[in-house]
Design brief:
5-stranded parallel sheet, globular, glycosidase, Immunoglobulin-like, TIM Barrel, alpha/beta, hydrolase, 6-stranded mixed sheet, Rossmann fold, 3 domains
Length: about 725
């Protein structure tokens, strides 16, 4: 009997671990605490200190014996680990114990026994922990066009975060990827605003259903940096802001995201961290966000050192807090910021009411996560999510070229080579154990990754033999190539993040191009598998001679087996491009929703948004549209016209009436998708909300507004097309 009662209690606690406290109850808790806090207490609550302030030597090491004094001095409301910063040992149990100890110290030494909430970048799984499962980066999930899968990945990530005593992740990225040269392009779900919005909504729902606070980042305009340089200025009109960059944030806010992170860059010449128009009028007012707004790394100090828009930290702190920032991620010098904010309040540059507002949001945030009710009690045990990671990787894979049906590989001698054939670093990309990826920095841990070459060897079907040689052994490799029936060469980008991952030429390293040319010169069929966080431009003499080209994105820990299944034909290629693949650098900026201009029709890209081949063929026909009070229901018949099962993915596009301003020739507004048997047909329908058919109407300068314009709308999906009049 005792055992059954204990089991019921354990189950109840486990169920509660994933539940967020209601906004009303959380705010009531917070309001009861706020009057008990002094000015210094409040300043502490709105400061984010790095966890290394509490460890020996300020590095990955045990907690210092005098860490309690640091808590009493800083009174931090939030704690941060940077990408790759970890306790010792960097194990699930090590993380759970480390954070539980910090939680205990915070409660014992912070004002009103307040715990400090811990935030981390868990952007494709719990990526700082070598033992954790890592999933495809967002760009790959965008290629799956399956929000349910994105939600499943987010929920699994939340479960692991809770087990490690982490309750707040700086994810998902809600930026729209508009320049593939940008180092954070792979962190976006793609280029199309409303399709990205669906993914963001799913990610927020999955994370917060698992009891972890989601963070929409980076508000806003971060995805259009000039020259493709990270943290560069973005020039964005009111129309582009509303039609392109806000829809994913609006979707995430509607999904209940508890926090938002500000853009590190500037928009129209104003640093976002000092822009009341963006952070208060737009985010709080127009979008109705009521949660916690956090800065990005050190970005208030950058107002002085980088942007030179403010003369000292007091004025920079005042400008940022008054613009709307609630919590400053101040890893380098917490004391300097706290002194500056104190002076700003005491001299009237920041009102006590504004500081109270920010503090109340911090307290409410903690209350919603249940941190004010009980100490952290994570199990320190991660779930085995390898099957999910493999399914996720398989769903992303996109076949771009297969001119002679070289794929699938059914027999013969296969030679596999290339720098990505057995590289955890390339396969995982940035934000993997270390901020810049595996092998970067001073983090020695390498996670267990199922890579391509071992997977091809281990799962080769009868009649297929596989050998592998590194590209560094060029003479032996070229000799072996002459005896192969198919050469699979895995190429890709070195891992990186933010500005260090910028790729201004959209190119592979020269050595990899030489490798491809050397292998093509053997006359044998060459299948290139590309692991990259963006479209890359191959020289025409390489591109035109490939017998196969597979875009694998950054597929995560189970990418190797997923690729082997697809290359051998045990599975297909369900992924479709979530971006427009340019033919040359001059086509950067050629998006699927680019309007007609005075210069004439836009050029054709190498591959359009939504492009992808498979081992089967499909068609979408008989599109019908039915207007309703809140939107338009579109239905089409999807048919698998081939001889193999496969996933049919078709973008639904809308052409809008004239608005007085340039309109996209056709705007992607949704996706019709079904997995079908050979010859199977299925009617699939979705409802397109009216806002996805609305236009931002206004002149080049001055006010604008959303309008559902009266007139004829044309919706298309595959071979199907239908028109209707609205409203």
């Amino acid at each position: 009997m005792k055992r059954s009662v204990l089991a019921l209690l354990t189950a109840a606690l486990a169920a509660h671990a994933g539940a967020l406290t209601s906004q009303a109850a959380a705010e009531a808790q917070a309001r009861a605490i706020l009057p008990r806090l002094t000015l210094d207490d409040k300043i502490g609550q709105v400061s984010m200190a790095h966890v290394f302030r509490f460890t020996e030597g300020g590095r990955s090491a045990p907690i210092r014996a005098d860490a309690d004094a640091t808590f009493r001095a800083l009174r931090p409301g939030t704690l941060l680990n940077g990408g790759g910063d970890a306790p010792q040992p960097n194990t699930p149990r090590g993380w759970a114990d480390f954070l539980a100890r910090l939680d205990t110290l915070g409660r014992a030494n912070n004002p009103a026994n307040l715990p400090a909430v811990f935030g981390t970048d868990a952007v494709h799984g719990v990526n700082n922990v070598p033992a954790a499962t890592l999933y495809p980066h967002n760009l790959g999930l965008g290629a799956a066009f399956d929000p349910a899968l994105t939600r499943e990945v987010a929920l699994a990530t939340a479960q692991d975060l809770r087990a490690l005593n982490m309750g707040w992740t700086f994810a998902p990225v809600a930026d729209v990827g508009r320049d593939p040269r940008w180092g954070r392009y792979y962190e976006t779900f793609g280029e199309s605003p409303w399709l990205v919005a669906d993914q963001v909504e799913a990610s927020v729902d999955g994370l917060q259903s698992g009891g972890v606070a989601a963070t929409l980042k980076h508000f806003t305009g971060y995805g259009l940096p000039s020259l493709g340089m990270d943290r560069a200025n973005a020039e964005i009109s009111q129309r582009a802001m509303h039609e392109v960059f806000l829809p994913p944030f609006r979707a995430g806010i509607r999904a209940g995201a508890l926090s938002v992170m500000a853009n590190s860059g500037s928009v129209n010449g104003v640093p976002v961290h000092a822009s009341p128009a963006l952070l208060t009028d737009l985010l709080r007012g127009e979008l109705g966000f009521g949660g916690l707004l956090v800065s990005d790394w050190n970005d208030i100090e950058r107002l002085i050192t980088t942007y030179r828009t403010h003369t000292d930290l007091v004025r920079a702190a005042a400008a940022s807090v008054n613009a709307g920032i609630d919590v400053y991620m101040v890893p380098n010098n917490v004391e300097a910021y706290q002194n500056a904010l104190r002076e700003a309040v005491q001299t009237g540059l920041v009102s006590e009411a504004r500081l109270d507002e920010a503090t109340l949001r911090v307290l409410t945030f903690k209350a919603r996560l249940g941190l004010l009710d009980a100490p952290l009690a994570g199990s320190g045990v991660l779930n085995d999510h390898r099957d999910l990671a493999r399914r996720a990787a398989a769903a992303t894979l996109t076949l771009l070229e297969n001119p002679a049906d070289t794929l699938p590989i059914r027999k013969g001698r296969v030679l596999v080579t290339g720098p990505a054939m057995d590289s955890a670093a390339i396969q995982l990309g940035g934000w993997s154990v270390n901020w810049q990826g595996v092998g970067k920095g001073n983090v020695p841990d390498v996670p267990k990754v199922a890579t391509l070459a071992p997977a091809l060897k281990a799962s080769a079907p009868a009649g297929v033999t596989v050998s592998a040689l590194p590209e560094t052994k060029r003479p032996q490799l070229l000799t072996a190539a002459k005896g192969a029936d198919v050469i699979v060469v895995a190429v890709g980008e070195a891992p990186g993040a933010e500005w260090q991952a910028n790729n201004p030429a959209l190119s592979l390293p020269d050595g990899q191009i030489t490798l491809l040319r050397d292998l093509l010169a053997t006359g044998k069929p060459v299948v290139a598998v590309l692991m990259a966080g963006r479209p890359l431009i191959l020289p025409s003499d390489v591109q035109s001679r490939l017998s196969g080209l597979v875009m694998a994105y950054l597929p995560g820990t189970q990418g190797g087996p997923a690729l082997a299944d697809a290359l051998y034909g045990r599975a297909g290629f369900p992924g479709r491009l979530p971006f427009t693949w340019p033919d040359s650098l001059t086509q950067v900026g050629l998006w699927s929703d680019r309007p007609s201009e005075g210069a004439g029709e836009p050029p054709l890209p190498l591959y359009p948004l939504g492009y992808g081949l498979d081992y089967t063929t499909s068609v979408a026909r008989d599109l019908t549209v039915t207007p309703g009070p809140d939107g338009v229901t579109a239905q089409a018949t999807l048919t698998n016209t081939g001889e193999r099962a496969g996933t049919v993915t078709v973008l639904l596009r809308a052409s809008l009436p004239a608005s007085g301003a340039l309109q996209a020739t056709s705007r992607p507004v949704g996706v019709l998708r079904a997995t079908l048997k050979p010859g199977e047909s299925r009617a699939v329908q979705i409802t397109v909300p009216n806002e996805r058919l609305s236009s931002w109407v206004g002149d080049a300068y001055g006010p604008g507004a959303w309008q559902l314009l009266p007139g004829q709308y044309t919706l298309s999906a595959g071979d199907g097309k239908a028109t209707l009049s609205l409203p």
